[in-house]
Amino acid sequence: MKTNIAILGCGRISKNHIIAIANNFEDSKLVALCDLDISKVESRKTEYKSLLEKQTDTICINTYISYKKMVEENDIDIIAISTESGYHYEQSIFMLNNNINVLVEKPMALKEEHALEMIELASTKNLNLGVCFQNRFNPPIQLLRKQIDNGKFGRIYAITANIYWNRGKGYYEQAPWRGTHALDGGALMNQCIHNIDLLQWMSDSIPNELNAMLSNFNHNYLEVEDYGSIQIRFENGIIGNIEGSVALYPKNYKETLVVIGEKGTVEIGGLAVNKILHWVFEDNSISVEDAINLTKSEINNVYGNGHTPLYKDFIEAVREKKEPYISGLEGFKALKIILDSYKKSGVNYDKYR
Ligand SMILES: NC(=O)c1ccc[n+]([C@@H]2O[C@H](COP(=O)([O-])OP(=O)(O)OC[C@H]3O[C@@H](n4cnc5c(N)ncnc54)[C@H](O)[C@@H]3O)[C@@H](O)[C@H]2O)c1
Fold this sequence. Notes:
Elements: E1 3-8, H1 14-23, E2 28-34, H2 38-51, E3 62-64, H3 67-73, E4 78-81, H4 88-97, E5 101-105, H5 112-124, E6 129-132, H6 139-149, E7 156-164, H7 169-174, H8 187-203, E8 207-215, E9 227-234, E10 239-245, E11 254-261, E12 264-269, E13 275-281, H9 288-294, H10 307-320, H11 328-345
Parallel strand pairs: 1-2, 1-4, 2-3, 4-5, 5-6, 7-10
Antiparallel strand pairs: 7-11, 8-9, 9-10, 11-12, 12-13
Helix pairs in contact: 1-2, 1-10, 4-5, 5-11, 8-11
Bound molecules: nicotinamide-adenine-dinucleotide.
């Protein structure tokens, strides 16, 4: 039996969900799509069908503008929520209360108490809650994680995440929810959260001390930060450094993750932290050439290819009633770092403009 999947929110990122669901066709099927804008629903439906043209001609996808109606009329095992971030909480709670497993886009919610309520409800209902931190599945990131698991760094001293991007007025004008406190958050919450998640995941620890300075340097039409600098001392002693911005002149520069250890140093970069830039270990059992060859992959956009393995894992978790690779609790950790940074630095940037 295939796992029935539906998507709520058919905007930009939902295209990656469509590809991922089509790539997992053996185990799942897309049964319904919902968006307030029916033209987006129709586009996603067409894309899914064209991706699976060769496999079947009996695909039936129901389309909706009301998610409540979609839930009433379909037997849904997994709902993918890819609406604006500020709606994730309310919609996830609704889905969990209707006994549907939830795979929610990042950030899982915008408030700590909301995220914790989602985690608690999923656990009470014995349902899965997963968060889309797809970059964890990037081959270089997986290989790096393996080196950490196998103790190849010795003691890890520090991990640094840099996100040097550019988002101009045109980007924010495309969708009015972007750059608002209520529905989005700033550069840390929207653009940097993936790399913050990778940094905290590699640390295997939780923050003990956190300092943050945020600013809005050249987006005076936004309520939120366009630059953030965070320093963390984790409980296990690792120091985390995060510098993220959407104010890079004149265009996207880079996104990198650097791990500095007693017996190894690694830097991963590329369009979506998908390329090994530096790789050196005392134990040279995986040489830099091997590491690069093992993890080569082509990507077409900054979102990478991670949604496909993420779906594979989540479908399996739902079928086998086990924890997904990136559970609600896992998804919460990066959110907590960002919310703590907001608390530390304050969110009124007017005096620094
Ligand atoms: N994982 C990633 O790399 C990644 C990348 C981009 C965006 N995202 C996240 O995905 C989410 C969506 O981002 P986007 O860029 O696709 O946004 P978008 O504005 O392109 O799409 C959001 C869609 O949700 C729809 N929607 C909102 N409320 C609805 C409702 N009640 N019923 C039905 N449809 C509704 C809107 O009409 C819109 O089409 C955000 O949380 C964002 O942070 C994740």
